[in-house]
Every structure is written in C-alpha cells, then in structure tokens.
Amino acid sequence: MGTRMKKDKNVSSLSDHVLEKKKGILASPWNHSMREANINFHSTSWSRERLPEYLWLGLILLKYGRKEAFNKLGYILKYLSEIDNTITFPRISSILSLPDEKQAKFYERILEHVEKAILSPLTIIISTNNYPIFNKYFYTNTSSIKKNISILREANRKLWDHQSNESTDIRFLALSLMLFNSKIYIGPQTKDTAIAITSYPTLEHDDERMRIYRPIIRSMEGISFEEEDYSFSRYFWSEIGMLDECNTFYMKFEKTTLSKNDIIKDTKEALDYVCAFYKNELIYSEKFSVLSGSLCYALKLFEEIISKKLGNSILGRHGLRSILEMLIICKYLIKNEIDHPNIWEEYKQYGIGKYKLILLKSREKEGRKDSSHFDERIIDVLVNEKIIEEYQDVDLKYFDKTGMREKSIEVDEKELYDIIYDYDSNYVHGLWGAIRESSVMACSNPNHHFHSVPDIFNVQEQSSVIYDTEMILIELLKIFNSQYSFPQWFGDKYFEVKDHE
Fold first, then answer.
1. Model pLDDT for residues 415-446, shown as the tens digit of each residue
2. What mean pLDDT do residues 257-283 have?
3. Does residue 387 carry a pLDDT above 70?
4. Residue 141, CB half-sphere, CA atoms under 13 Å: how many?
5. pLDDT interval class at 30 (50, 70, 90)
6. What DSSP string runs through 97-157?
7. Tens digit of pLDDT for each residue in 201-233?
8. What count of other Cβ atoms lies within 10 Å of the Cβ of residue 10?
9. C-alpha to C-alpha distance for 209 and 241, rounded to whole angstroms
10. Distance (Å, rounded) from C-alpha 194 to C-alpha 317?
11. DSSP line for 411-455
C-alpha cells in the first residue's frame, strides 16, 4: 500500500469519532460534545470575518516588528479608549463610524507614531467617496494601486492563519483596548489568564511559556461581547477580490510505469493456455466462466489504462475501482462455493437480472435515439441468452444480500476497501472531494480566500493508479491461479508465492 503519512497533527483519530446512528453521522468529538450539551455552537472565521477589521493593526505590526509596534500601538489604542470608551474592539469599521471630529483626532494621534504610507494601501478600499476623513489623513499618491494591492495581499497572506504568531499578536492588541476600557474582569480563579495577558507582550515567541499563553489570547479574542456585524469585512473582501487577479496553481505528477512490462502480453498468453488446458471447464463450468470472464474484464480495463495513458486520469480511478471489485467478488464466490454450490450460476443470473430491469424500462420509453450507446437489441439477446426473460426474476438487493464492504471483510480485503475502493468511489459517483481534487485548481491569492478555479483547460492531474492497479491485478491473477493453474513460467515470473506448487 506504499508509505504511510506520519501522523504529526493534533487531530482526532477515527476511534475518537462518535457514530450518531439516528443522524447517520460519524461525528467529530467536538461536534458530538456540543450536541450532547445542547449547545448551539457557531464558529466565526478569523481570516474571513475579523482580519479585515484588524488589518490596520497588522500593517503597523508587519512594518515595525513586534516590539516597536506593540509600543506604538499601546499609545494609539490607549488614546482611542480615551476619546471613545464605547468601542469594545479596535475594528476599523467602528473607528470609521466615529464622528468626524473624533476620527480626525484619532488619525492625528496615529500619525504621531506611524508613517502615513503604512496605512495608505487601505485607501484603495476605504475610498474617498465613502470615508473622506480617513483618506484625508492617509492617502498618498506615491504608491500605485497595483503596489497597494500587493501590500495588502502579502499582509493578508501572513495574517491568514489564525494561529500564527503575527495573528495572535493582533488578537492580543484587539484585547488591549478592552483592558484600557476596563471591560475585561479577571477574577482570582483565572490566575493563568491574568498571567498570560500581562506576560504576553514582554516575551518573545520562542519562549516556552508562550506555547501556553498564545491559546489563551486566541480564545479570549474569539469571545464576542457585542452583536456581530461583519458587513465591513464582506465589503472589504468584495472590493479587494475584484481588484486583484487570480494566481492559480495545479498538481503535476511524474508518469508511473509498469514494474512488470510484459504483464499484459504474458497474461493473455497464459490465459489462452489455461482455456485450452481446461477445455471441459471452459465449455461446461459456470465457475470457470465467471472467473475467466472477470479476469478478462479486469485485464481489458488494465490494458486501457496503460495503452490510453490513463494512469493519472479520472477514468484510471474508475478502472482501478472496478478491478478491485472483481478481486473482492471472486474471492467471495470462491470462499462461499462449498456451502453454496449454485453461487456461480446465481451470480451470473444476478447480473443478467440487472440488465433485464434496464431492458424493461427501456421498452417503456418512447422517442429514445437509436444513437444511444445503450442498444436495446444487444441487451435483449444477452438477457434471453440462457433463459427466456419470462422465467427470470430481478434481484433489487446486493448480490447474496451483502454489500461490498461486508464482502471485503469476509475475504480479508477490508484495508483495500477502506482506502482504495472508498476513495475511488468518490470519482465514480462524482462527489465533491473527487471533483475538487481532479477538476478544480487552487488560487494562492489570499485576497480571493484561496478559492477554487475550474480546470477548464485540463491541466490538473491526479497521482498515478498504475502501481495499485498492477498490484491488484496480480492478486486477481493469483486467485485465478489458485483454482486453475497458470503455466509454471507465469507463476515464477509474477507470483512471489507459487500457488501452483
């Protein structure tokens, strides 16, 4: 199955998740605990909802560095609390809502500590038409719109992660205004919180104590003490997103080649030999018919993947899933044939029954185009090939009343089912995970929220299925070999364990 990715993230394991049977949900531990406590939890986004409000703080922090910026912003935020102590957080929307006189006084105080050009990039969003006082104090004509967009883009990139050191610094600064306004009360039972707040600005981020203090700061800033209004943030992202350009990137993979270059040719030769050697079974045995037919189906899929160079494609994953299904089905049939002697014939009838159902539905439709790949004449012949359809029932359940998952468990292929079959089923059914991986590129521009871009020109690739497909095909060959022996030269070449010996 290849190299496993090292688990180095602090995330919940599969066993930590809780199955909520009534909802049909495998719930994360956090979500389950919230539902159990009947808490209507609503998360807010640092990057999408709060970062635009504090970007003015971020521009100052990134320009002057942590120590100097804390010193400057300490004076600035203290003054903001003095001219208007009703502002809880130093959000730019709250500042822009101040009366013109208060705004002017506050901007003058900022310019006593900060160069005008540092906040100037914001004027492309906080425009003269809507915010004339802000523009009066911070607009400059020394930097182009393109340059200002670039400055905001890089600032957003550095501050996007809500757990980064820089973002946590801004969140501490946001809390500072509440301290100046005496809107934070820290009782004796919250000694650790008090120590975190007083120690945070005096320590460097590489100090071991900051590993404890940073989460405390982030959790406190995330608590809302007022009705949330993120209209400015929505406005900010809308404006900057339209001004800036996408920067898409996509995945490319090296082309994987077969480890056994002659496997297709050799398998055809060996299977031809087996059909001649087992001539009686070829004519009369339902088991031989199913196993040899399934192997040929898998081999055709494999040859199409190789010859059409579909290893890195969507269709390659479709083919791999089908070959794996052949493996699981064949192992299941072999395992159950002793207690279920008619299983091979019933398996064939089950498949033909599926064809019969489609045929019946097709006959009831009018106006179908003859150019459709579904040819009613061919299906009619196949359905009535062995038994006329009036004597055939249609089984609407899974074959043998067990699904692929249960079958995979029974034949000890649960790992292949869990990883490969389930994964590739997303591609077969066109679920969003597969669509996102194969047909959508990412934009690396934070001003666009790292959004998705349709892969119109088909440049996105997937990792190759060649290794897994070859491995599963060989397992299927081994299964066939365990029932009808291939020539010895074939086993010596392709099987580590010679099943014919």
1. 999 999 999 999 999 999 999 999 999 999 99
2. 93
3. yes
4. 0
5. low
6. TS-HHHHHHHHHHHHHHS-HHHHGGGGGTS-TTT-HHHHHHH--SSS-HHHHHHHHHHHHH
7. 999 999 999 999 999 898 888 765 456 788 999
8. 5
9. 38
10. 55
11. TT-HHHIIIIIHHHHHHHTT-HHHHHHHHEEEE--GGGTT-EEE-
Question: Domain spans of the chain?
Answer: 46-244, 263-362+374-494
CA torsion 328-330-335-339 (nearest 10°) is 120
In the predicted structure, residue 183 carries a pLDDT above the cut 80: no
β-bridge mates for residue 443, sequence order: 248
Measured from the Cβ of residue 212, the count of other Cβ atoms closer than 10 Å reads 12
Q: Residue 19: in which H helix or E strand, if any?
A: strand 18-20
Q: Is the pLDDT of residue 303 over 60?
A: yes
340 has pLDDT over 90: yes
- pLDDT band at residue 94 using 50, 70 and 90 as cut-offs: very high
Residue 315 CA to residue 281 CA, distance in Å, equals: 34
Report pTM: 0.79
pLDDT value, residue 189: 58
Cβ neighbours, 10 Å, residue 208: 7
If you write DSSP's letter for every residue of 43-66 in order, what string do you get? ---IIIIIHHHHHHHHHHHHHH-H
Give residue for tokens 């033909």.
352
Query: How far, CA to CA in Å, does 300 sit from each of 16, 127, 293, 418?
Result: 42, 64, 10, 25
Q: Which two tokens stand for residue 366?
A: 């009018």
Produce one character per residue of 34-47: b if its CB has 16 or more CB atoms within 10 Å, e if not. ebeeeeeeeeeebb
How far from each other are the two terminal CA atoms of the chain, in whole angstroms? Answer: 27
* 40 pLDDT tier (thresholds 50, 70, 90): low
Q: How many degrees, rounded to 5, is the angle at CA 162 between CA 160 and CA 164?
A: 85
Query: With pLDDT > 90 as the criterion, what percentage of the chain qualifies?
Result: 69
Q: Which residue has the tokens 């009343």?
A: 401
Q: Between residues 320 and 180, which one has the greater pLDDT?
A: 320
Q: Taken in order 175, 170, 86, 111, is the CA torsion positive or negative?
A: positive
The H or E element containing residue 26 is strand 25-27
Amino acid at 408: S
The rounded Cα 8 to chain-centroid distance in angstroms is 18
At residue 27, the 3 state secondary structure works out as: strand
| Phi, psi at 211, each rounded to 5° | -65, -25
Predicted pLDDT at 5: 42
Q: Cα–Cα distance between 178 and 217 in angstroms, integer?
A: 13
